[in-house]
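Thread: Newbie trying to understand structure tokens

Hi all, I'm a second-year student working on a class project, and my supervisor (Dr. K.) asked me to get a predicted structure for one chain before our next meeting. I've only ever worked with sequences, so writing a 3D structure as a token string is new to me. If someone could post the tokens and maybe explain what I'm looking at, I'd be very grateful. Here's the chain:
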Amino acid sequence: MGRVEGKVAFITGAARGQGRSHAVRLAAEGADIIAVDLCQDIDSIQYPLSRPEDLDETARLVEKSGRRIVTIQADVRDAAQMRDAVARGVEELGRLDIVVAQAGVAGMKGEPQWQAWTDVLDTNLVGVLNAIHAGLPHLEAGASIIATGSLAALMDVSKVDQPGKDPGGVAYMVAKRALSMVVHELATHIAAKRIRANVIHPTNCNTPMLQSEPMYRSFRPDLEQPTRADAEPAFHAMQAMPVPYVEPEDISDAVLFLASDESRFITGAQLRVDAGGYLKWYDYHA
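---
Reply by user tm_fold:
Sure, no problem. This is what the structure looks like when written as tokens:
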């Protein structure tokens, strides 16, 4: 028996990166998957997003483990599309036990700047809430909601050196902070139904979002066209452990734990998978 045997998981952003990793790991532990992704670019986001063939590859990997999967190209920014995706998946797979609101974009250096602000908030905050709200009516006691936050949500960056310089980049932090607060409050009130909700906060994670030209420029603003080789030494600044990033599978370990009955009394947690990044910002406090 797998750790989530017989459960069904709804995962957004499932075509590649962390989302694909979560789908594959949960399937390997017995879950069937409803996999959703946009599979097209957003004009203001300055790196390529997933494609339909990426979602097809996720399906192939899930099916390789012997589990069922429903793949749907849909936009988390659209609440109706999320409701329809969940309804279609539940109709085919019979139930819903796990919601993994993973889809997200990074808008640093985005153009037009204020469109990047809007697209990041609509994806990383509104999109997370749309996914959770679509799943809620189908969840019963023992279900688990998991949202992807970020170490950026926990960093103390209260001082703004150049207001208005990079609203798309700032929107990422704002969205992750806001979703963390919303999930905290949601967890409080769905606890009475024995449904759990938690947030996972990764540090740098080795995905196409991190390995992208705008991210390289964010870490190496001193260079006009930095490469991965230029940026990777700077990635270490985020973590206390001597690593540039964690892998998607490291986050999937935490997703599996929070999705499984092993964490049946854990709710409202802000779980950091950050290689000690938080420790560099804060002293101990109870």
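A couple of things are worth pointing out once you decode it. The chain has a mean pLDDT of 96. The chain has eight helices and seven strands. Feel free to ask follow-ups in this thread.
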